[in-house]
Amino acid sequence: MTHVMAVDNRKFSLTRGEDIFMPVTIIECPPIKVAALVFFRNALPVGQAFAASLDKELARTISIPKAKGQGEAPAYDDVRLLVHTQPKLTSVKKKPDVFELRLGGSLQEKIKYAQDMLGKEIRPEDVLREGRQVDVHAITKGKGFQGTVKRYGVKIMQHKAEKKKRGNANMGSWTPKRVEFTIPMPGKMGYHLRTELNKWIVRLAKPEDVNAKAGFRGYGVVKNPCILLKGSTAGAPKRLVKLTDALRPDTLIPQEAPSIGYIST
C-alpha cells in the first residue's frame, strides 16, 4: 500500500503496432514515513513504540507522546506500521494523514522488518512496479443534496403524472407500515468510500515527464514521483487515495506495461 494524491487525467499515445490513445490518471506519490510500531494481541492494540524523531507536522493529526523509542513491548501476536503522509513535499495541504499498514510473513519477520523501517520512508518504487494491477480505495466527490433521478437513476414519469415527474411513483408495500431503506429517496450524494478493482499501472514516472507548463488546474505542479493508472479514479484532486495489491487480478490484463510513445498535452 502506498499513499497517493490524485491529480488529473491526461492522454498518452502508446506504441504497440499502431498508436493507441489511452486516457490515464496521474497520481502524485510522495513517500510515506513510518512513525511508530503498533502491537496487537487478539486483534486488539496493546502498545506502541514511536520513532526517536518525528516530523513536527504530525502533531496536527495525533498527540505525540513525550517518551519515544522502543521500550519493553507487552505480550503481542501481531505488529503493524503506523505511517503518515508528507504533504509538506507537495503543494496540497499541511495536515498529514495517518493510517496503519499490515505486514505479511511470520511474526519474527514482521518485527524485524518493522524495526528496520521505523523512522524511515517507504517510496512507491519499493512496493510497486509497471504493469502491475492494484485496487484503488478513495473517497468520491461530494455532490450535496440530490433528487431520486440523479441519485438512483429513477425513470422520469410522464407529464400526466400527479404532482411530480422526477420523483418515485411507489413508496413501497402497504406492510410493514414504514418506508423501507430500499426505496429511492432524495438525500446527500457522494463522499463515499469506494474501491475500484484491477487498475493497470502504465508507468512509474518522474515529475518532469508529466508536468504541464503551468501545472494542473486545481492542483498545481507535480513535485514527486507519480504513477500513471489506466482510466479514471474516484475522488477529487488533492484527496487521499490508497493503492493495494489486486485481490482478484484480471487475467486478460497484460502483466507487462505498454511502451509510451509521447504525451499529448
What does this entry look like structurally?
A hairpin with a 1-residue loop joins strand 1 and strand 2. 22% of the residues are buried. The model is unreliable at 1-17 (pLDDT under 50). By secondary structure, the protein is mainly β. The two termini are 30 Å apart. It contains four helices and 14 strands. It folds into three domains: 2-29 and 125-141 and 191-264, Elongation Factor Tu (Ef-tu), domain 3; 32-122, Ribosomal Protein L3, Chain: B, domain 2 (2-Layer Sandwich); 143-189, Ribosomal protein L3, domain 3, CATH 4.10.960.10. The strands form three sheets. The chain has a six-stranded antiparallel beta barrel. Strands 3, 4, 5, 6 and 7 form a five-stranded antiparallel β-sheet that branches. The longest helix has 11 residues, at 107-117.
Which short descriptors sum up this protein?
265 residues, 4 helices, disordered N terminus, globular, single chain, mainly beta, 3 domains, six-stranded antiparallel beta barrel, Ribosomal protein L3, domain 3, five-stranded antiparallel sheet, Ribosomal Protein L3, Chain: B, domain 2, Elongation Factor Tu (Ef-tu), domain 3
Helix and strand layout, with pairings?
Blueprint (H helix, E strand, L loop, with lengths): L1 E15 L1 E11 L3 E10 L2 E7 L27 E7 L13 E4 L5 H11 L3 E2 L1 H4 L5 E7 L2 E5 L1 H5 L34 E4 L2 E13 L1 H4 L15 E5 L9 E6 L14 E5 L1
Antiparallel strand pairs: 1-2, 1-13, 1-14, 2-12, 3-4, 3-5, 3-7, 5-6, 8-11, 8-13, 9-10, 11-12
